[in-house]
Specification:
By secondary structure, the protein is mainly α. It is 82% helix and 0% strand.
């Protein structure tokens, strides 16, 4: 069993996350060219419903596993870990089987009444078998994250992505002669194949880890005399239920968001096929671009939970503050240049990636808000790691309620349409991030230097101006050359600015590069 430090574990997940995001964009770029925006809409439409089910099954259990295993290791109580894992698997598998049967049996009614476009029926059927596969994978990932061994998670994600790239394109291309709904279902079969491959890699890692782990006698649970499966079950439920509730609000909001957007666009006089295409453009094209830079923040979030849980078990507030400050500063510094480039180059990005420059207006609207997304993930993980998932739940509920009200109000206006929905989503992102920040500050008496925010703002403005002039001043008639030059100069100016402002030092860069070499070795 290989345990990594907080930074090294984050770097491993970051490397895998960046590779996955880059590879994952291969089908995202090519799939719209195969099945079109309407096909992407059908492909995306079932995900909100599946997201709700997966949240019920896996929302809090993997985090509870990671937290409890990290605590058990901190207390040198190795014999408690197998019991935690077995109970988690029993809960997850049992729920997965029940929901899979319910989804297959109710697929016709769900797609006709809840998902607003009955053509998504075949896609929905093909995604139902993913429920138990994703559930079991989530448990194993929680186990390895609790061990602070991020290599299994990273390798399984890479394998899943590689299989998905090939199978999504092959299956959708084979099915396109039968109709767009069958092509979307074929793409979902490709996703299913990727999930199976990812689970297989996790199972191999687990088998090796089990063989290499020492056989220890049964010991007391934690530092108390409480022993047995029931005690472990109660602790898992006590941690996972509030986290699941918080995530369920977000997932339910995502489901209601998809339903409300379609209904609001219909009220605005937009035909069902066009509304499906617009929804597909938003969820299948714009949101993935916005989330591309979040590979770092998601890696930080995954590593934060066991790291902060272990520090909290030792009552080490200094480490908690240091880890949180480290994570938030990295999230801001690394996310800012992407937000600038997505805003300035929104139209050419969508033209070169999807051959749909009209989608650029939605990307331009969301780009300035993207930095709040990157800042939000470490804050939420901090609340979960420090036994305050209830605060995250309330914050998410407030943001989701505001978002759904705004979607219905704005997207139903003919002059706004889908842009009204984008504005509502932006308000939700900003509101939830600010509420999470307030909760963390009150909990830890935490603060960041206001000058850091100002310096990052100046660096963004300078890089944005350089990016704009190089792209839109016609110094050459070759547009792609202006696009590449604009992106490169924007990044260079930003890196120079944050180095001058001492937001990051050459020593930091050298440390990261050296760490990367060690991880590769």
């Amino acid at each position: 069993m290989t345990k990594q430090s907080f930074i090294r574990g984050t770097m491993i997940l970051l490397a895998a996350g960046i590779l996955n995001r880059i590879l994952g964009f291969i089908p995202r770029i090519t799939l719209p060219r195969v099945i079109g925006a309407e096909g992407i809409g059908l492909y995306q439409m079932g995900w909100p419903f599946l997201s709700v089910i997966l949240t019920i099954i896996t929302g809090g259990i993997p985090i509870a596993i990671a937290k409890l295993i990290a605590e058990a290791e901190a207390e040198h109580n190795e014999s408690r870990i197998p019991s935690i894992l077995r109970i988690s698997l029993m809960i997850t598998i049992g729920l997965s089987i029940l929901f899979t049967i319910a989804c297959v049996a109710g697929a016709s009614w769900i797609t006709s009444h809840l998902l607003t476009d009955s053509r998504v029926y075949y896609t929905f059927l093909c995604m139902s078998p993913m429920i138990p596969i994703i559930g079991v994978s989530a448990v194993y990932r929680g186990y390895f994250q609790g061990r602070q061994n991020m290599i299994p998670t990273a390798t399984s994600q890479i394998m899943e992505t590689l299989i998905r790239i090939v199978m999504v394109l092959v299956c959708s291309y084979v099915m396109i002669p039968y109709g767009i709904e069958y092509a979307a279902a074929g793409a979902m079969v490709g996703v299913l194949a990727g999930e199976i491959g990812g689970l297989a890699v996790l199972a191999i890692h687990f088998r090796y880890d089990k063989k290499s782990s020492p056989k220890l006698p049964v010991a007391q649970i934690g530092t108390t005399k409480t022993n047995g499966r029931l005690a472990n079950f109660r602790r898992i439920m006590r941690i996972s239920i509030p986290i699941t509730g918080s995530k369920l609000i977000g997932a339910s909001s995502y489901l209601f968001e998809s339903i409300l957007i379609a209904q609001s666009l219909a009220i605005a006089g937009i035909a069902t096929s066009l509304a499906t295409a617009q929804y597909g453009a938003l969820q299948g094209m714009v949101i993935p671009i916005i989330l591309l830079p979040s590979a770092l923040t998601m890696s930080l979030s995954v590593s934060l939970i066991p790291s902060l849980s272990e520090a909290a078990a030792r009552k080490d507030m200094k480490t908690i503050h240091a880890r949180l400050h480290q994570s938030l500063k990295l999230a801001l510094v690394t996310g800012a240049p992407f937000a600038v480039i997505m805003f300035v180059l929104a139209e050419p990005i969508c033209r070169y990636m999807y051959n749909q420059p009209d989608v650029g207006i939605m990307l331009k609207m969301m780009a300035p808000i993207a930095i709040f997304i990157y800042f939000q993930a470490p804050l939420q993980s901090t609340l979960q790691a420090l036994n305050k998932p209830g605060s995250a739940l309330i914050n998410t509920l407030i943001g989701s309620t505001v978002k759904l009200i705004l979607i219905y109000w704005l997207a139903s206006k003919p002059e706004l349409g889908i842009q009204g929905a984008v504005f509502a989503i932006n308000v939700n992102i900003v509101l939830v991030t600010l509420l999470h920040w307030n909760s963390v500050v009150r909990l830890l008496k935490f603060r960041m230097e206001g000058s850091d925010f100002g310096k990052i703002g100046v660096a963004m403005a300078l890089s944005g101006l350089c990016c704009y002039f190089i792209m839109y001043v016609p110094w050459t008639s070759v547009e792609w050359l202006r696009f590449v030059a604009s992106s490169l100069v924007g990044f260079i100016v930003y890196m120079f600015s944050i180095t001058v402002f001492r937001l990051i030092s050459l020593k930091d860069l050298t440390r990261i590069l050296n760490m990367g070499k060690k991880i590769i070795r």
